[in-house]
Amino acid sequence: MENEPDHENVEQSLCAKTTEEELNKSFNLEASLSKFSYIDLDKELEFKNDLIDDKEFDIPQVDTPPTLESILNETDDEEESFVLEDPTLLNIDTIDSHSYDTSSVASSDSGDRTNLKRKKKLPDSFSLHGSVMRHSLLKGISAQIVSAADKVDAGLPTAIAVSSLIAVGTSHGLALIFGKDQNQALRLCLGNTSVGGQYGAISALSINNDCSRLLCGFAKGQITMWDLASGKLLRSITDAHPPGTAILHIKFTDDPTLAICNDSGGSVFELTFKRVMGVRTCESRCLFSGSKGEVCCIEPLHSKPELKDHPITQFSLLAMASLTKILVIGLKPSLKVWMTFPYGRMDPSSVPLLAWHFVAVHNYVNPMLAFCRGDVVHFLLVKRDESGAIHVTKQKHLHLYYDLINFTWINSRTVVLLDSVEKLHVIDRQTQEELETVEISEVQLVYNSSHFKSLATGGNVSQALALVGEKACYQSISSYGGQIFYLGTKSVYVMMLRSWRERVDHLLKQDCLTEALALAWSFHEGKAKAVVGLSGDASKRKAVVADRMVEILFHYADRALKKCPDQGKIQVMEQHFQDMVPVIVDYCLLLERKDLLFSQMYDKLSENSVAKGVFLECLEPYILSDKLVGMTPQVMKDLIVHFQDKKLMENVEALIVHMDITSLDIQQVVLMCWENRLYDAMIYVYNRGMNEFISPMEKLFRVISPPLNAGRTLTDEQVVMGNKLLVYISCCLAGRAYPLGDIPEDLVPLVKNQVFEFLIRLHSAEASPEEEIYPYVRTLLHFDTREFLNVLALTFEDFKNDKQAVEYQQRIVDILLKVMVENSDFTPSQVGCLFTFLARQLAKPDNTLFVNRTLFDQVLEFLCSPDDDSRHSERQQVLLELLQAGGIVQFEESRLIRMAEKAEFYQICEFMYEREHQYDKIIDCYLRDPLREEEVFNYIHNILSIPGHSAEEKQSVWQKAMDHIEELVSLKPCKAAELVATHFSEQIEIVIKKLQNQVLLFKFLRSLLDPREGIHVNQESLQMPPSVTEQFIELLCQFDPSQVIETLQVLECYRLEETIQITQKYQLHEVTAYLLEKKGDIHGAFLIMLKRLQSKLQEITHQDEKANEDLSLKDVEDTMVETIALCQRNSHNLNQQQREALWFPLLEAMMAPQKLSGSAAPHLHPEALRSLTMQVLNSMAAFIALPSILQRILQDPVYGKGKLGEIQGLILGMLDTFNYEQTLLETTTSLLNQDLHWSLCNLRASVTRGLNPKQDYCSICLQQYKRRQEMADEIIVFSCGHLYHSFCLQNKECTIETEGRTRWTCYKCSSSNKVGKLSENSSEIKKGKTAPSQVKMSPPCPPSKGDPAVKKGLSDLFQTDAKSKANERNFWNWTAQIQAASEPVLDPQQIQAFDQLCRLYRGSSRLALLTELSQNRSSDSYRPFSGSQSGPAFNSIFQNENFQLQLIPPPVTED
Question: Is the pTM of this model over 0.90?
Fold first, then answer.
């Protein structure tokens, strides 16, 4: 277990001089490093428990743990992932599918998936954490490695192991042993090149705990043991594992007689060393066979001596990582498997990594195993319970944005990761924050690829293991005692954590003083990461860091003064100090070193006047936020003088009221405040400096009293002083300090008494003989009567009901009455404010004031005085509050009602009437009150509907409402109608009789009958006779004839004959025509419209040139359009003869004015009339045959005699229309044919295309499909690429029964929505949400002709298509026939393919557009009288808000 060195020793080793000296001192510390591990764990328990992530995911315990034999006998295909019983544990669904697409052997860089990562990289953390790691080159060892290669042909370095010594293995079989002293001398050279030629390169090294033995593993499979004290060869082992495989790992356990080795065949062996009769032997036992799964990484759990009694150590745990899973086994007391854990799907080129460390979690120290393969690190906490069983809990993952090739614990809180591009990442485990990134490509790290490929024995390894070996560097990195050693091709580097002081000094050397202070403060607050060198309790650590920060601050201040630009503008100097000085102030205050700030720092910065000014200005925000109190008198004085010199008096006032000014010259400060009108500051100085509360009031009264007594208008400055005086008095009486804070509790009663006694003084201190009594109360009443009385009211609220408070209240009230009632110099408004104040006080339930009974009469007389209209609502409200609070007992009720009615206090009247249950009179109150008259409807409704009122009371209210029905209707017709319809629908005719005013009757009936008016009443429940509706129609014809047609369309209860008579009476021809049409008299309606059109044409024919031509022509066009619409609506239901009876008279009417073109008086609009005639011809062409139209024109006596030139334009226009329609028809037919052909081609291609599964295993059970042997089981393949066993899908309930058939749904696609949408109806299947394409296969037997392996529905599709071949012009009908056909039915894959085809049309297809356009909706489109229509006919694609018409050519069909 690696640990942090403590404060004292590390500080001795890390006072930087040169890199070599630092390294040598760190080696000298090695003997003391081991004892710090226990200190490290104590610190973890004491200080870091609050940072531990409590979210632990327990791996489910099994009743009987698997035996080693059962695991060895498992079929383990390296192409597949190990199957975990609970797949959600690793969240396999989120694994990227591309990470295991390849199984080829990659080159050294092809397995790097870093370029595929899309996660955002962490920000540069240098400025936050400084340089965390110190890395140094071991020059002595590096030079000797290079020298050995040259002089003794040792070869290149291949492996490294570190303990108290450093062992380096070479490619020619030599092991070089170096000391860790200052000289880094070569102690031993073990082996020789001749043996190296026989055994091959050293591929693995291991040193035991007491640094007495060295194990060497070779590329050709041999193992040697050496005595590190004498350099003697103790054992040469050649039969420990199968021959022809290289040693990948060899590891001593804590038991010096037990070691573990792992070969390139993927097998793991236990080596037991014995000495019998002086003969050293080695027994080998296979722990894991490579034939069952290749292990490529092993890691035994090592414990330090101080943890040798830990209960977990007795098991001698070993972690092994294969290509698919990790295993944790116990070697003692007997071999036992404690845990297996699969990776899930990983990049096959990523390197499996394992690392143990003891950590403190929940006040217990236990080993934690970190394992990783790729870019996710998993942490497993191993515990032993009381029964002796081992439990493993999964901790929070560490998700990275790079692939790892090495993982090393440097202490229990900090890990060092090496990614595939040789960058080191220092990570804080608990917060997962990246502390530093270091580029180590200069190391030229040694990789173990040749050993993983077993090149020395002929390369007889699997491709999967060789692919992992491309980035394997297990033997090139070794950690010991908080140091990590990296073996390069020509060098050895060591890295370790810097101490906290060294990290700060490192920033100082780079002139990053601000960052150094910030880092030191994080050490001070205990928020820094990877802290080394701080020990002891929190107070001791803070003191050590604070001393260092003070030193840095002095250096920072000197630097600020030294770096100040000597020349240039004053603004440049100010900006320089504004950047530097606040940092000094901030950290001095954070360290609570005001003595340092206001003595040495202030004296140092005072040498520069600009720096001094900036320093003083920096203090302002701290003073205003009350973070800085207790400044020295000199600094306070300089601060005030500085702001005073800069004319910032408002800032001075704000500062004074936040400072303790007892140490200043009070009189001088008061004089300055008075001269500069800093009244708040002046009051504060009096209050806080001298505990004097009366003097400020006297000074302010002396200023505002003379002009008020003389009747002069106050200046703005005097008004400000008066307002401050009122607020000050209010604060004093409430026990609050002015302008902020609170008066000390022991002074509150005294201050209140002093202020009251001052206010009610009979005369002022320096009174003249002419002064009236109670000058202070009088002055405040004259200044602002209302606000002064509000201050008194607030004071009365705060008073407790003690005897003295009651006396003060009564006394001040008596004085107010004496001052204001007995003097005539107060306005009625001011006197009214006093009575209002008294009324409110008297209305309180706990009132203790006594006022003469006659005063109530005066109050009532004043409030109800009709000659004073000022503040009418306020006076009414005050009287209402008095009555509601119980003051009504003080008045005679009849007199009160009379005065209230006289004063128009209708709320008072309502209050009194309600007490007497005279609800009908309250209606009069509402109707007379202009502010509340509209509320009368709600009041009447509540009385009539809310239970609790008697029938007599309801009858009286309704009778009163009937008496005022005209007022109610004129006020709000809708509300009145709703009231009548809701409560007395059977008396509507009585109400109508009461409404003599025809206009009011019209408004009432309109609100009652017209649903567009918004009345919320069921029209059917009214049951009104038709005569009422007809009466409303007649009134509508009189007052709003333009709305008659629209109203008739929404009305229901009226008789056609009577209504036609009414409209004829008022000569509303359009309305009459509408009613005749509704009656069924089409010809009669047409004759009316034709007659109206002829009259309009006659007007335009005989009008003179001065008339409004555009208006009359517009009338003709509107009338003609309405007539055409009438003909179009009804032509569908008429025979040919009846149609001609409509259209030909209309055509003749339009052509009649043109016959006069040859007369002496030609009309004025030949072109306009000709255009209108063409419009008639185009409209009638849809209903009248073209030969009939031409014959009728040619038979006309006018056109039949002369040449055809006069009607040439009409005929040519008709022919152009014919050509246009013919072209449109041909284009539409062509588009339909192309769309149908293209759609069928795509549909055929979709349903015949094969499916390509993304994987060859079931996505639920993760087993290969061929591995399942059940005869009845089938393989389901979906179009999304997922593959399942049918039994697995059935267990997950992924079936839907629709139309008597079972349909499958993809489990992963449906569960990815986070909700189980497996019960959706068949309509969703048609939308493509749950219907899959699937292929069923029965793996045990080959597909036969009778039962094809792949079911395709193309034949079913074209059997259905043959039935609908004749309907090719309507594609949707054809589709509907497919869906409606009972035999055969589309298979799910056909439905899925068809859904994909439909989704290709993003919006409405051309086919749907043309179908919509072909629908004949002329009967509705030209109706001028149509209201709001709804229904299926109007659910058009053109009304869809997402509709967009895109004009593009049709797709080209490719054969």
Answer: no
